[in-house]
Specification:
Blueprint: H1 2-35, H2 45-51, H3 54-71, H4 81-86, H5 92-126, H6 136-142, H7 144-149, H8 155-179, H9 187-197, H10 206-237
Helix pairs in contact: 1-3, 1-5, 3-5, 3-8, 5-8, 8-9, 8-10
């Protein structure tokens, strides 16, 4: 267990402050955009987000975080990954899965900060109301971006989000693994783009969530099977 914890700590130590910097910069830009709007308190949440480019800033920040994670472990990243992995008493397949778990934690961190930004925006647009605002739960179902971050009782969306972050994390870990072997796997780019394009879909779009979830599950199984076959071939050659 201690060895596995040490493997998990490798990307955490290398990436934590980088990911934190990108996440904080994204949130700071979104908050500053709200504070610079003189009429922010007179807008509803959805229109406020359009005015200060909340969705665009979140997408750019999230893409920047995924790029940082994808480049970690590549031969041109400055990390002596091959040398480190050869000294580890576990298979590279397990290392990829552990690094994917660490990457998942970074993506959840970004997600949580974005949720905090939306809650701040909601506070801004409701603080000067002379009447009781709609409950926060109702606002989640009225606002696509908010609902994407916090689906509440929309369980298909919860499942879709979990599968999206898991498949993206695995794809990022697999990318550097294949790059070290002179190959390219850009599955994570397609996963990222599809997830961003469908993120703000309406709360009732369960069909979209279902088909996307099936795609994500199949993609993860395909990538894991590819890892197992690659490890088996490596053992046969040895």
């Amino acid at each position: 267990m201690k060895k596995l914890g040490g493997i998990l700590a490798l990307p955490v130590r290398a990436l934590f402050f980088k990911v934190l910097a990108v996440t904080a910069a994204t949130a700071a830009a979104q908050v500053a955009a709200v504070l610079l709007l003189s009429n922010a308190a007179q807008l509803d949440l959805a229109y406020l987000q359009l005015e200060n480019y909340t969705h665009l800033l979140a997408a750019v920040g999230f893409a920047a975080v995924t790029a940082l994670l994808a480049l970690h472990g590549c031969q041109f990243s400055g990390v002596k990954t091959d040398y480190t992995l050869r000294r580890l008493p576990v298979t590279e397949e397990r290392v990829v899965c552990l690094w994917a778990l660490a990457y998942l934690g970074f993506l959840v961190l970004f997600w949580a900060v974005e949720l905090g930004v939306v809650l701040f925006q909601w506070r801004v647009v409701t603080r000067e109301l002379t009447y009781r605002p709609a409950p926060l739960a109702a606002e989640s179902y009225l606002n696509g971006f908010f609902h994407g971050l916090l689906p509440l009782e929309d369980w298909p969306r919860h499942i879709r989000n979990l599968l999206w972050l898991s498949a993206l994390s695995l794809g990022l870990a697999v990318f550097s693994r294949w790059q070290r072997r002179g190959q390219v796997s850009l599955v994570w780019v397609l996963t990222l783009l599809l997830g961003l394009c469908t993120f703000c879909s309406s709360p009732g779009s369960a069909i979209i969530d279902l088909f996307f979830s099936i795609y994500l599950l199949g993609q993860m199984l395909f990538q894991l099977d590819g890892l197992r076959e690659s490890e088996a071939d490596a053992h046969e050659e040895a």
